[in-house]
Amino acid sequence: MAETIEAVVTDIEGTTTPVTFVTETLFPYARRALPGFIRDRRALPEVAEQLAAVRSLAGSPTLSDDAVIELLLCWIDEDRKATPLKALQGLVWAEGYAAGDLQSVLYPEVADSLRRWQGAGLRLFAYSSGSVAAQRLLFRHSPRGDLTPLFEEYFDTRLGGKLEAESYRKLAAAIAVPPERVLFLSDHEGELDAAAACGILTACLDRDGTGRSGRHEVHRDFMSVEQRHLASS
Questions:
Q1: Rounded mean pLDDT, 139-162
Q2: Which of 45, 70, 98 is the last residue of a domain?
Q3: Which residues, 6 or more positions from 82, have their beta carbon under 8 angstroms from its beta carbon?
Q4: What is the sign, positive or negative, of the torsion defined by CA atoms of 159, 172, 218, 190?
Q5: 80: Cβ–Cβ under 8 A, 6 or more apart, which residues?
Q6: Which residues pair with 182 in a beta bridge?
Q7: Do residue 131 and residue 224 come from a single domain?
Q8: Of the candidates 49, 66, 98, which is a domain's last residue?
Q9: What is the pLDDT of residue 211?
Q10: What is the average per-residue pLDDT within 75-98?
Q11: Is the pLDDT at 233 greater than 60, yes or no?
Q12: Whole-angstrom Cα distance, residue 166 to residue 200?
């Protein structure tokens, strides 16, 4: 390898998947389906658990179901990174994927790059603000087939906020790889700053060519990342 990298951790939105798929497909789908989903399935343990978590997060354990729904819709509009919201969205999307209403979108080179990296012995992980369930759904229902077996583990906001260096320390400890041998891919410079603060290597994806600050090495796609960091020496 060009560097001693053992593991690659990738963000999803804006890194493996266009932001527009999330903002124009997944979020609107969840916003439309969530009220009926909650009313029809509120007794299911996995749904009831998340509704209780919403009430706890709101500091109001007696909120009615209708008030909880309104709060969740508000959080969707705000793009709030609330763990119970992400979990409920994942449950809604699971039904959408199963019904054939949804199919994920990836950038063109992502599937082949991930397969090549895993085949070369790199350990692959995902870390996203979306729930682990939502991450698995996205990679399972890709246009290039089920990619979930390529990833060793998935992480979400239960690990910690993506702008907090401590989250990346926990991640490196969880996968048992020294930070300096982990490469984190993201389009968000704040996330990259947090990862770099604990010694993790970083690569900034600038998919739309709008430019970045230069605090992190910039790449247009995974092929560029591979040539710089992962190509055989």
A1: 96
A2: 98
A3: 54, 57, 75
A4: positive
A5: none
A6: 7
A7: yes
A8: 98
A9: 72
A10: 92
A11: no
A12: 12
Residues 181 and 86 in one domain: no
Q: What DSSP string describes the chain?
A: --S---EEEE--BTTTB-HHHIIIIIHHHHHHHHHHHHHHHTTSHHHHHHHHHHHHHHT-TT--HHHHHHHHHHHHHHT---HHHHHHHHHHHHHHHHTTS------TTHHHHHHHHHHTT-EEEEE-SS-HHHHHHHHHTBTTB--GGG-SEEE-TTS--TT-HHHHHHHHHHHT--GGGEEEEES-HHHHHHHHHTT-EEEEE-TT-----SSS-EESSHHHHIIIIIS--
Q: What percent of the chain has pLDDT over 90?
A: 88
* pLDDT tier for residue 232 given thresholds of 50, 70 and 90: low
**Average pLDDT for the chain:** 94
Residue 1: predicted pLDDT: 41
Please name the amino acid found at residue 133: A
Residues 200-213: what's their mean pLDDT? Answer: 88
Number of domains in the chain: 2
Whether residues 36 and 118 fall in one domain: no
Do 71 and 180 fall into the same domain?
no
Same domain, 108 and 223: yes
Range of the domain at 54: 22-98
- Within this chain, do residues 161 and 123 fall inside the same structural domain, yes or no? yes
pLDDT in tens, 27-63: 999 999 999 999 999 999 999 999 999 999 999 999 9
CATH code, 75: 1.10.720
What's the CATH code of the domain at 208?
3.40.50.1000
